[in-house]
Amino acid sequence: MNKGVYGLIVAAGRGTRAQRDDQSLPKQYVHLNDKAILTHIISKLSDDSHIDGIITVIHPDDIAAYEAASAGFEAKLLPPVFGADSRQGSVYNGLMALADYSPEYVLIHDGARPCFSSDLITRVMDKLQNYQAVLPALPVSDTIKRAGDGVVVDTVDRSDLWAAQTPQSFSYAQICEAHQAAQDYNQSISVAGVDGEAQKIEFTDDASIAEWYGMDVHIVMGEECNIKITTLADFERGESYLSSNKNKGVDVRVGHGFDVHAFEEGDAVILCGVSIPFDKKLKGHSDADVGFHAITDAIYGALGDGDIGTHFPPSDEKWSGANSDIFLKHAAELVQSREGRLTHVDVTLICEAPKIGPHCALMKDSIAEVTGLELSRISVKATTTERLGFNGRGEGISAMATATVIF
Ligand code: MG
Hints:
With 407 residues, the chain is α/β, with parallel strands linked by helices. It is built from twelve helices and 19 strands. A hairpin with a 2-residue loop joins strand 8 and strand 9. Helix 3 (87-98) crosses helix 5 (172-192) and helix 5 (172-192) packs across helix 6 (206-212). The longest helix is centred in the middle third of the chain and has 21 residues, at 172-192. The protein binds magnesium ion (MG). The site of magnesium ion (MG) has 5 residues, from strand 13 and helix 8.
């Protein structure tokens, strides 16, 4: 469902209040765990299937920092735009730059809030199906006091108070109209001079522009973790939220593979990279290593990415007689290139003969060598089929495997 949904990250601020390692960088470029705060945000929005494109509003002095923080996400990133001298002006520039893409919705997100979850985006997107302005917010739990000169004047009723977060999300056409009207209004005040009653309105977020313009802004539940990194203490909270989100969100995938090869005249079979002397060999296009083939297909299965035939078409002569470690290595490298980790492989070889047991340790070594797995994460087993079926009649060997990949 492509509805033209764009993320707009507001990252033009010069705020260096929260500082740790590099005193010269605005906070959105400071690292939290292993990445810049802005990189966390770009990465999450890029991974989100709701989002079609991302635009970032930056300060002209930050071009190099932005290029470093955004490298590798080119697939969804649009060229950045420069901010203005107010947050409102910066968002306006971002909205105008999106016009060419005719968005249906825009999610405007603070460049200092890296800890939101994908669930929040889903909640926002669900709400946008019915409303034109959506604000993630949390009910205020602390008792709120109004004070002057350090003395409490009043206790504020908190029952209908909410703390606003981002991404504040809108129908693109509507929020553009609202921003345009707010811009025109403030410009008219400038032109009128200081003698009138009217004053410029300083909008601190986009929901307040939408409210001012008369839009109904609908609340969705925000997240405790979705903090704006402001103080030094926020860095530690942010790092801890990012680590726990990562653990909570660990993505485990198990793939399955199955393969069969028939016997023909020969003097050895190759199973999981090990040559076992026998009075037959396995027939096939490559070296017919039924064990490696099953494991390779299990890994492709965990990645949801086809099978050996897809990646190495049998019609291609160059794979004739190939060592099957080529296929297994390719699958293992594909896991790495997707930023996954192969954590376990289990293969069962099914035949009456040759005897597999004496060769299992060597096969595990061979799988470890090709995949980079530790031996404790590899299992090689064998069984017969009690002389039943084609395996039982000694017509060939089959293999079943599973592979586990985590992201
Ligand atoms: Mg095969």
